[in-house]
Structure formats: structure tokens, C-alpha cells
## 1
Amino acid sequence: MGLEKSNKSLKPLKTLVKLNKNKMDTLLKEIKYRDSEKDRLEKKKQQIEDESQAEIARYSGTKYAYMLDNYMQNARKSIKIVDAHIEQVVQILEKLREVLETQYSELKKFEIILEMKIKQQQEQEKIAETKAMDEFNSNKFIYEKEG
């Protein structure tokens, strides 16, 4: 009966620990997704830069060289747009990491409290068990003395 009661009193804490772990898992998945998005955007930026350099090398000194200035302006605009997207993703990642850090702190608090409660209950059970054994032994002693 004591064990059943102790498990019930720990249930809310165990639930909080589980919920916090689930939130952390969700945050970690979101961070992973955003990191891959950032990598994709950085590759896209590099691709635009590489293509621009290739076009310059290909058409400079040809009759189409006059179009390179317009082409480079468009490439720079595309790079600025990609840079803006990268910056947005970086800001989102920073916020997500802050939330993750807070969530981790919360999880650790609940885990420490849970651990303390478990130790406390184990000590109480040990005391109750010792008390019961003492009572049993004293009753046994009285019974043997009388008998």
C-alpha cells in the first residue's frame, strides 16, 4: 500500500519530466530542420556566386560582354535575397537554442526534484520497515518471554 501511494505521488513529476523531454525532442527536430535549411541556402548562395563567376569568364571579351553588368546586378540581388533568408534562419535558430536551453534547465530541475522525492520515499520506506521489524521483534521477545 505504501509503494502504491508513493508511485501516485511521483506520477505528476514523472509526467512533467516526460513532457519536458518531448518538448526538447520537438525543439531538437526543429533546430535540425532549420540547420539544414540554412545549409541549403548557403549552398544556393555559393551556387549563384559560382554561376556568376562562370558567366563572367565565359562572356567577358565576347560580343555579349555588355550584358554582364545587368547579369551581375541580378546575381547580386539574388545573393542579397538569399543572405536575408539566411539571416532570418540564423535568428530563428538563436531563439530556438535559447528556448532549448531554458527547456533543458526546466527538465533538469524536475529530474532533480524527482530524484530527491524518490530518495525521500525510499528513506521513509526504510524507516517504516525498520519500525515494523522492531515491533515484530519486540512482540516476538514478549511472546517468547511469556511462553
Note: The CA atoms of residues 4 and 10 lie 10 Å apart.
## 2
Amino acid sequence: MPKTPTPAQQLERAAAMLQKLLSRAGHQLPADISREADDCMYMCRQVAEAAAQH
């Protein structure tokens, strides 16, 4: 039976998915959207790290 991922693991997975999408879209994305996605990815990782420490 697979173990349910923790919220931190789910956030880390979401950040990884965002990163993969960004790299696939590459230069096709407008700069502002790319920046916002980067910010979102960064926030996901920050929260995941904080959650993992508790």
C-alpha cells in the first residue's frame, strides 16, 4: 500500500512539475508569466522546506 505523500512532498512535487512545464515552454512564455511561475515555484519550495522542518 503506497504511503500518502506529506503536504511538503506534494508541494515539492508541484514545484518540480512547474519547473518541467517552464522548461518545456521555454522562450514561448511571456516574461511576466515566466517570472510569476518562477515565483510560485520558489514559494512552493519555501513552504515545503518549512513544513519538512516541523
Note: The helical segments are 7-25, 31-52.
## 3
Amino acid sequence: MDGEAGGYPEGGRRGALGDYPLLLHYHPLTVYRHKVLKRPDTVLAHLLLDNESDEVMRNSFEYYEKYTTHDSSMTDCVHSMLASRIGDLQKAYDFFRKSIQLDLDDLCHNTVDGLHMANAGGVYMSVVYGFGGVRIKEDGLHLHPGKPKEWERFSFKLNYRGKEVEVMVGEFLEIRCKGSMEVIVNGKRHNVYEYLKIGY
């Protein structure tokens, strides 16, 4: 645990290095001597492990956001997902927009060579695991939805234990499935019999 970050340090000695502006590109030998990151691996670990407090995840997000160069096409979607998880929907949406526009606007000036498929998967994950708040745990399918103010509604489908589940998030949360299942919404367990519509 890093006292300054309130989270876990990346790269071993990074906490001992000085801050550095990320506005310009420098030779890697220069960059390696400063506190900069290409990808937010610690932030990603919070998404995968899901065993830290909201405070630790928020501290890690805020700390590593300022040191990440966003040179990787997978960075913005990771930041979008964790921003959603910590409840900062505006930042989540801003990172989502950057991620979704990456190939559409040729932001890396290399779309002619092919699409960034890992980023495309990250865009889907930003919707499902970020804004949809999907967590698959031992005790069931959890949803913690949060809708960006820029959207009227959004929906997605996923397969859970052999069932196709459709989730729609708008003024209400709507869930469709064949047969019945249980879902946990913001910590409260609900039974779904083909269709459920609730406030969230």
C-alpha cells in the first residue's frame, strides 16, 4: 500500500521518482526515469479482482490517471470502467467517448493498417461492466447500473449460466430472460420471471 496514492504502487520504485508532465513525447530512456505509465495496470487489477474498498479504488484511479500517458489503445476503456465503478459517470463517459472514437476518427493515425480490436472489446466492456455495472460473483449476477446524462437509455445482452439476459438501463432498469433467474441490483436480490422492471 502506497501512502501517497492510497492504493497499490506500480513498477516497484515508481513512488520514489519525480512527477513529470505528460504533454509531450520523449525518448523512452527519458521517460523511464520519470513517473509515467503507458497503461494503468493497477487500475485494471481493481476491475479484475473486485476485492478492494471503494476508497482504495478511487484513490488508485485518481493517482494513476495523472501519470498515465494514454499511449495504449486499451487505456481509455480501462479508465472508463473504473470511473463508472467509483461513481464518476462524467469521467467514465469522457473516457468512453475517447475509446469509441479511437478508430472512427483515426485518433492514432493508423486505422488504415487495421482496427484496434482490443479497444473494440474494451468499448463493449465499458458499457457492460462499466455503465451496466455487471459483476459475476459466486453468489450471482450483480448489477450496479449508472447511465450517463448524455444517454436516454442503453441496453446490452450477455449470457449468464446458459441464459441469454438482456439488460436495458433508462429511467428504470429492465431485465429480460427466458424462464427465471435471480439478479442482485445494488446489493438487493430480485427474482426475474422473464421480465423485471425496477427503479435503481
Note: Strands lie at 135-137, 140-143, 154-160, 163-169, 173-185, 188-198.
## 4
Amino acid sequence: MAHDTTRVLECLVQFGNEQQKQYIFEQIQKEIPTMSKSLYAHHVIIKFLTYGTDAQKDTIKKSLHGHVCKLARHSIGCRVLEYCYNDVCNSAERFQLVQEFYGREYAILKTTDVKNIEELLASKTATGQRANVLENMQENIMPCIQKDLLSTSIVHRVMHEYIRNANEKGREEMIDAVKEKLIKMIHSRDGARVAIHCLWYGTNKDRKLLIKSLKSFVIKIAKEEQGYPVLWTIFDVVDDTKLVSKVVLQELMSSFDEVINDAHGKKVLMYLIAPRNTKHLQYDLVQLMKTSDTLATSKKDADIRQHELFEFCKSYFLEYFTDNILSTLKDGFKGFMMTEMIERLSPDDKLTSFYTSLSSVLSTSSVEPQAETNLIENQIAHNVLRHLIIADGKRQKKHKQKTTLVSTLLSSISPDTLRTWILCNRGCFIFVMMLEHGQPDECKQIRSLLVPSAVETLKRQTFTGAKILVEKLLSSSS
């Protein structure tokens, strides 16, 4: 079919009346599988899948039965198959298309007794039946890999089903074939899961080639909803942290602002600071990551691996939080990332600039209840500051640092400004946290600041924070 002809037909399908559409459909109905593989004619099929009636769409779906594997490994046909699978079919219809990868019998007789590959394999009780299904899957997938036709969701699904059910030999063959081509698949959920399995079960050489294939695409992967867990897996299982730092972390750190301000990218950075922390990271994905703990494919201790990665990137985190302290205080996720970072820093890490920056912002914060600059009474900023004081207290107990957050706040912010904090509930709680987690000399300084001058003011307040602070001050001074 010529290019001009298909353009005319596309316009008629999109803008024509029902009679015109039906007439065209009746003329092409028997040629749907052939047209689906035509450079120009396949656009007409896609138009019918988009603008056709439900009956016409159902006819096209049924016409593809028996041709799914051929279309999947055809550079044009895979486009029609992908559109039909992703945008037109429901869950049951998708499984009917997927079944054709399991063997010829499923291209003719679709099974409705099972809903997924695991149920189907479990039903294959006779000797060799399970192996036959997996062999058929491999035979139908390999041509797609060899032809680099790896952008379709249906192929990703079949590959994911295969790699999680195949024996060791079959899995190794799959990893060897696809390890340098995974960048074309990571945008989909199943494609990303294939990449994760390749990292879990691949050799060190496989992992090295896989990571190198991601070069210049790391930011894109970090910002993709399905892609960022692949980076988590790299952090979890790859022993060569120098390679990971050079290829993955260096690219992430060079675009730090872009990554940390992205909904998915910030989760990659959080994983570097607090891996597998379900307080801040999606529970089911963290559980998925734990699968690698049972595999004997990584030799380096997990704590050592995490430490080496954190050491590479900690200066970038500290610099960002120091320069962007105000916006970080107002962002719950970034704020807790900052507190987790503080707790992990070593005694050699200098925090003076960071503490000074934080004190500077707080010293100019208004305590007027409705003021936009009221960080002390701002719920997010208050929680972040509270956790920072706790994290710094833990760090102080561990490393015995001379410079602490509490000491910097007390020395950098004027006494008059500090006393205004007792005029709001959360400001009182900040003092309570400093008394609970500060050093003895710092607590003494706080009492000197507030007792007795501010006690009467606190007693006149009706909010809870004031009452608790008075109790702390009086019990400490007695």
C-alpha cells in the first residue's frame, strides 16, 4: 500500500462517518496481519485501534492471534502489537497474546484456566512439560533480542516471566544475550525487573558490562518511575564500587540539583544515605531489594559497600544542604535526607559551615504566627530541625565532636531572638529537644538564657510546649 493511499485512509478512519469506516474495515479485514507488518499500511490498523468501534477493535485483536511472535520480532509489526497490547487490550486479552510465546498450542487454543505463567507452569505436572514451555519462551524471545526489538511491553513481560522461572543455565543464556541492551527496557516495569534479575544473578563481568551500557543514561533512569530501583540494585549488589562511583555516582552528582528535585531521583539519593529505610522509601520495593541478600553473587560486605559509596558522594550532599538550607527545611523528604546524612558523617567531616548556614536562616526567621518566614512554627521545618538535633546528639555521643548543632545555635543566634522562640508552641519544643539531646554545658547555657527571665512568660502561655519547657527548666535548675 502506497504512502499517499494510507494517509487518505487514515484521515477517513479518523474523521469519516461510521458507514465510511465500516466500508474501509470490511475491505482490509482479511489483510490485518499482513498490513500490520507494512511500513505504511500499519498506520491504518493503528488508526482503527484508536478510532474504530469496539467490534472493529475486537476483530483486530482476534486477527493478531496466531501471529503474535512473528509480529514481536518484526520491526514494523511490533509497533501494532505494542499499541494493541498496551492501549487497547484488557488484562485477560493481554494474557491471551502473551500465551503465544509459551508454545504453538497456545497460539491456537487459548487457556482461560490460569492467570499467569506461574499458575500455568504449576499445572504442567507431566515430565518435561514445564521445560518445554520455558524452551518455547526462550526460542521466541531470542530473535527479539538479536534484532534489538526490545522496546515493546509484551516482550518485556515475557522476558521477566522467563528469567524469574528459568533454571540457572537458561537464566545465564538470557543474561548473556541482553546484558548490554537493557537500557532499551528499563522504562517499563517488567523491563526494569529484567535488569534487576540480571544484576542479581549476573557474574562480575556481566555486571560491569551492564553498568557501562548505562553511561550517559543514569539521570534518565533515576528520574523514571520504573527505572530508579535498577540503580538501587546496583548499589546493593555490585562489589566494584570504584566502577559504580565512576559511571553512576559521578553522573548523578554532576546533576545533583536536577536529581534531588525530581520525585523519583530523590529516592535514589536517599538510598545512598539510608538504604532500605522504609520510613522514607517504598516498602514493597525495599522488600524486593532484600531478595539479593539470599543470593551468593556478591562477596563484599554490604556495610562496606554502602560506606564506600557514601564516602564518594557525601561532600556533594553536604554542599547542597549548606547552600540550600532554607528550601531543605521546608521540604520533608529532603529534610529527613539531611538528618540521615548528619548521623552518618564521620568525625573528620567538618559541619561548621552547615551549622552556621542553618543558624543564619533561623536567626532571621520571624516568630509571628502567620508570617511566611516563621520557620520555628512551620510544621515541616520544625520536624526537620527536631530530627537534626536528635541526629547531632547521636553523632556527638559517638564521635565526641567539639562543634555541635546546639552550641552553634546558641552562639550564632542572638539571645533576644532565641527568647522569642518561647512565644510559639513549636519553639518551646525546640528548646525541649536541645535540653534532652544537648551537652551539659549547652543545657546550662539554655537555663541561663531562660531562667528566671522567661519562666514567667512561659507560665502565662496556654500551649503544651510551654508547660513542658517550664517543667524541664525548673527540674534542671533545682
Note: Residues 325 and 358 are 6 Å apart (CA to CA).
